[in-house]
């Protein structure tokens, strides 16, 4: 007879703990699978080291902090530009990241509304602002915020893969 291994049946009064343990174990397994899949998807042929690929673009999340103009110049020096979110799927992706403050390619310098670096207008998304001197866009914890362009934050660059 071949021995069969199975989990012991929960004892009286311990079924809640048993269910919790199984649930936590399942959650951990799913998280490991998600991280492995994300790491595979995040590598994109043609994206430089330390850049992540999504669809047809490469993205870089800086660790340094600079003002908006210096952040824009840093992206430009890498052959890229500050992040432009020009479709609903991309907006959901980046707003869903819930990251701390990062500069993106969004400005309201002319008073004619929020405009992306590529010249397109921001559509259907509110930029939270509490001051008329806040003219640069920041992505933070699921929202777009206005900030003074002189504040130092990390930034997100975007470019096409090679």
From TrEMBL:
Subcellular location: Membrane
Domain C-type lectin, residue spans: 54-158
Pfam families: Lectin_C
UniProt membrane topology term: Single-pass membrane protein
Keyword Transmembrane part of the UniProt annotation: yes
Gene Ontology MF: a single term: carbohydrate binding
Name this protein carries in UniProt: C-type lectin domain-containing protein
PROSITE patterns to which the protein is assigned, alphabetical: C_TYPE_LECTIN_2
UniProt keyword terms in alphabetical order: Lectin, Membrane, Transmembrane, Transmembrane helix
Keyword Transmembrane: yes
